[in-house]
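In the design runs reported in the main text, the only information available to the sequence generator was the tokenized backbone. The following block is the verbatim input for one such run; it is reproduced so that readers can re-run the procedure and compare outputs position by position.
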């Protein structure tokens, strides 16, 4: 008869080893022992860190593991290392240093005025037809998010051996749809601040009636927001359709799709994946239905907005007043040295807990890579029970759960 070894006497040792391993791997200094995990898991896991961590005046968020700061430091070291040695004119290294330094040279930016944007602004002024409007939007991909903008390519949902570009809803100057349609006090305040910002941009650009121009653009963007699919359905893969320009012209008339895709360098006959078909149809109809002059005014102000950090001082000040203070809760602008490093890299994903932004932006979904805690400008805790917008946050949580169910239970995509 064979005797099998018995490991029962070793179980206490193994359990002790596991507990010791967890104790060394888990940073208990962040925990809030006064909060039960069953009541508030986020605060139980991060309460001590949240209480002890301050958000710098020039930032709207901080992270438990600050990868953005780490990457910034590496980029600075690379650029400083290149600058320390002569670089050949026309070389990639010299272009990188010159590009970095051009963002920091505020005096040169102020002297240039709107000259760097003149060609694009003139192209908007030259729009005469719906085809011209679509063509300009195609050429603007990578500069700003047009009402229908292109992203990717990515592996096709139905054929992973083929990459396709995604067509996404967009074009909003405020963060999302609810900012235009919601009646929450914070959303109303953000909308009023945005209207003032649009008026300032119109005035700086020389519009003869800046107040009227700002109102026209806000009305147009509100129409776009009404056409957008709500967040809970926006990324539902069951809705995605692979369509070429001819099919899009039939299913979403109004936008000159052939001109738009051709100007975006998508070859004739190639299909794109339309992620929100309902929004694409409604937005395409607006392209034909709204006055061409309103579209041109809208695109002038959108271009000025996305370019404002690299335009003369009045534009930078207006941009900070709205996007920095009103939306982000900042009290001082982002240092120009840090801004100069941002164009060199995409923003890395955050890991660990996060605090911010302090403005009225609603909380995004808590992802696997990081959690974000929102703070209002008055320093209160928006996550608390009974806080303003609590109903909206609960609704958003339900929407996110529903969206995840769509991802797991996506139906036939071949329709």
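Verbatim output:
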């Amino acid at each position: 008869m064979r005797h099998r070894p018995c490991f029962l006497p070793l179980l206490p040792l193994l359990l002790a080893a596991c507990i010791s391993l967890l104790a060394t791997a888990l940073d208990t200094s962040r925990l809030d022992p006064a909060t039960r995990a069953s009541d508030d898991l986020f605060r139980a896991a991060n309460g001590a860190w949240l209480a002890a961590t301050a958000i710098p005046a020039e930032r709207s968020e901080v992270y438990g593991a600050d990868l953005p700061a780490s990457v910034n430091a590496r980029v600075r070291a690379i650029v400083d290392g290149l600058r320390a040695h002569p670089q050949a004119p026309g070389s990639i290294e010299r272009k990188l240093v010159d590009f970095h330094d051009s963002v920091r040279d505020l005096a040169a930016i102020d002297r240039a005025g709107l000259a760097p944007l003149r060609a694009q602004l003139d192209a908007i002024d030259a729009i005469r037809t719906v085809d011209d409007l679509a063509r300009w939007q195609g050429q603007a991909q990578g500069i700003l998010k047009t009402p229908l903008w292109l992203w990717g390519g990515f592996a096709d949902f139905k054929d992973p051996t083929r990459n396709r570009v995604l067509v996404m809803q967009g074009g909003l100057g405020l963060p999302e749809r609810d900012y235009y349609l919601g009646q929450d006090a914070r959303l109303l305040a953000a909308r009023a601040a945005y209207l003032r910002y649009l008026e300032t941009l119109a005035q700086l650009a020389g519009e003869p009636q800046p107040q009227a121009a700002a109102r026209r653009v806000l009305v147009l963007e509100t129409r776009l927001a009404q056409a957008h699919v709500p967040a809970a359905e926006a990324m539902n893969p069951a809705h995605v359709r692979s369509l070429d320009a001819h099919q899009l012209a039939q299913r979403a008339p109004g936008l000159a799709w052939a001109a738009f895709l051709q100007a975006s360098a998508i070859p004739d006959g190639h299909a794109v994946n339309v992620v929100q078909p309902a929004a694409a149809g409604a937005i395409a109809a607006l392209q034909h239905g709204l006055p061409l002059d309103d579209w041109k005014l809208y695109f002038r102000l959108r271009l000025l907005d996305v370019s404002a950090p690299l335009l003369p001082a009045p534009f930078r000040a207006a941009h900070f007043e709205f996007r920095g203070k009103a939306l982000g809760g900042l009290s001082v602008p982002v240092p120009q040295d840090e801004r100069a490093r941002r164009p060199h890299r995409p923003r890395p994903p955050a890991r660990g807990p996060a605090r911010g932004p302090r403005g009225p932006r609603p909380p995004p979904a808590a992802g696997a890579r990081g959690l974000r805690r929102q703070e209002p400008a008055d320093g209160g805790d928006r996550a608390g029970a009974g806080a303003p917008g609590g109903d909206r946050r609960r609704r958003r949580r339900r929407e996110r759960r529903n969206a995840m169910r769509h991802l797991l239970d996506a139906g036939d995509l071949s329709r």
